[in-house]
Amino acid sequence: MLRFTVRSHPGCIRDKNEDCYFIPPEKGPFIFAVADGMGGHAAGEVASSLSIEALEKNIARFSDKLQSYSLNEMKNFLKESILKANKEIFDIQSQSSDLKGMGTTFTVAVFFHQELLIGHIGDSQAYLFNESGYVQITEDHSLVAELLKNGEIEPDEVYDHPQRHLLTRALGTSSSLNIDFYTEGIKPGDCILLCTDGLTNVLRPAEIRDIIFEYDYRESNNLEKVADRLLNKANELGGPDNITFELICYDKF
Amino acid sequence: MKKMPEMLLGNRYRILEGIGEGGMARVYRGMDVKLNRPVAIKVLYEQFAGDPDFLRRFKQEAKAAAKLSHPSIVNVYDEGEEGNIHYIIMEYVDGYTLKEVVQRNGRLKPADAAQIILQICDALVHAHSQKIIHRDIKPQNIIITGDGRVKVTDFGIARATVDATITYGKSLLGSVHYSSPEQARGYCADQKSDIYSLGVVFYELLTGEVPFSGESPISIALKHLQEDIVPPGKLVEGLPAELENIVMKATHKEQNLRYSSAAQFRDELEEWLKNEKDLNYGNNSLVKRMRSYTLYKDRQGFDKDPFEEPKETMPDKKRYLRKKKYFSKKILIYTGLLVFLFTMLFAGYKFIHNFLHVPEVSTPDLQGKSLAEAEEELESLGLSYRIAREEYNETVPKDHIISQEPPAERSVKRGREIDLVLSLGPDLVEVPYLIGSTQLEARLMLSELGLNMKVDREYSDEIAPDYVIRQDPGKGFQLARGEGVHVVVSDGKRPFSLRDFRNWELEDVREWLNLYELVLRNIDEEYSDEIPEGRVISQFPASGEMVQAGDNVDLVISKGIDPDSYKTYTFEIDPLVSPGQVIKVYVEDVEGTKTVFEGTYLGELITAEGVGSGQVVLMELRNDEYQIIDVLIFP
Hints:
CATH architecture of the largest domain in chain B: Orthogonal Bundle
Oligomer: heterodimer
Number of strands of chain B: 31
Structural class of chain A: alpha+beta
Low-confidence stretches of chain A: none
Shape of chain B: elongated
CATH topology of chain A: Phosphatase 2c, domain 1
CATH superfamily of the largest domain in chain B: Transferase(Phosphotransferase) domain 1
């Protein structure tokens, strides 16, 4: 059984929320997504909402088949949904110069029996928390992440790096696209966090874990308390960016 | 391009037409009506206009750049705002960006490349002296004007955008072909960073390629940090070693080991150019040659052959210089008198002697010698010459002797005329512009000129299959007939493996093919026992085969089960109920539902027939209601 909650907030500095998210329709399937738009003016908002709409449409279209999909078919389904979104966002830019250069991050998670399938582009993140600790499942597609991986900068330098806003990959910025996929086995007691960097730029994963455990997310009503606390904390710390996150608890099946 | 409203910005600048779009501004050609001069107007995108932090920074940088005044820097005249429109007024420069020049021509001649870099060095020396760092030196920011001058634009603008994106939000990592390692790593750019970037530009001009290329900006950025640059001389045969050293020094990963200043960079270039000019170029101006690079689009009205070597005038000059060196005026007079006396004596003797006897001399070997040398040699032997003809020759340089008649070491009478065949040098033809032509067109163009073509193919997302992506050497280079041009031809988009469409609805396949830019060619229909009507039975190419955008795909769609293939099944049914009971037996098959028996069972066997597939259902009436007591599924 899955319990989930979502928060999306513009933060304290910006007047618009360019983040977008997707939660499962009533009858399933259990698909979640967050998107963090980029590009000036209204473009970021357009890109992130287009990506979520494209996913929504594709889910509606294949709703009768999704239930019977194998893991591999599900992966193909996600891939095609993302490629469609990419094409749509990319094509629309040629129609209006105000939308030029727009794009979005896109992190989508499907709960599939006891597996978690994640498709990912950009620097939004998916984390897994449980009693034994936490792990960041997704790898950021950012200059800073690459520099860190290649030993060019130290972990401490990441948070204040002058170029931490630079992405190496995003949805809708070119006609071709390379998507990362991850498959993780999950077990009862696991809590998945999908979030945009508005949360993780101010809260370190360890701090998030402390909050999740402080309110014991396993108690059914506490998930909301955890979410409220995370949002408030991020805003207390300045809320420099839009904050969007989804918490999904896997209880048992 | 968005139309701007008809208005005067700041009461003096009129927008005329859009000429380009950059990362943060739209550029227009305009007119300063007050000074009646053309200007370029950069209008900031609205998205930035709403960001006060960015505007402050942008104005600050524009003001700083406006302080610069140098012939090789695009002048910033003014900056201002009109309602929500924020703009910069700049010098209007008509020309091509250096990027366009390299894209269209391939690599440049070393001396031309050095001339261009020298001018950019000048611009940097000036800017750095005002404490302004460019931060984004790249060929796109360097303009070659119609008269061959070099202009650097967008000083300091990069800084405003970097700071803006921090407050403004994400952006995609852009081109990093020219970024220094320290910039890639995220540290502040300084003068040495501009020197590095300029070194990379120099590299590109000399080789036609950037030192690091890769699938993505990040892989390029990491190469700037980690990999050594392949020395340009490895790519271009005969590249002067001095230039290679200059490039390698400018692009050193360690800031400390690069040129300490743009001035030092400039001095080394100038030194090389000075020697080079003496050797090869004479007074053939860069301006003239740059025209041939940049203005190929519109060549009418320009010198047809700007690469032509200056006329050979050296021999006369040399002789004159030699005399001047060795003889002072006094000596000249005495010697003149002496020579006169001797000549008179000798002439008298000669006159008589020749009358009686013409001496024979052995012909010299003139092959490979310059005409001037030959002339001297023949003269000393008392022979004269005639240029029988001039012809192209691959091995003998221009104005040197290919052959002679009579040949060497023959006895001939003095005064005899020797026929010489003079070389015109290799038969040079100008390499045409091949990019954007098909492979076949390129081959035709080259064979017309007597040039060979070597073809490599590579995948390209941008260039359609069979079209030329790049060439080496570029347009305007002179090659001898028989030499080759290397072209890289597009092999189309990168292939990928085709997925399995079996059991898919036709509409879903269509959408998928559309997404991957494949073409649905034939749709055949077949009966199938397994695949429901309207879905895919099979496909060509098969799943897993590698395909490319533009490839055709054929499908076979199911029409459902073949009616002729239905088998008829006959069942003898013993209902196993007591006679006297009311029962009903019906068959459901592909043809529908048929009741076989209904009424009181008398104990006989009941025969039922089913077609294709379905079931036979046996029901018994209990309490006025039929209840199913048995079902037989077939086949």
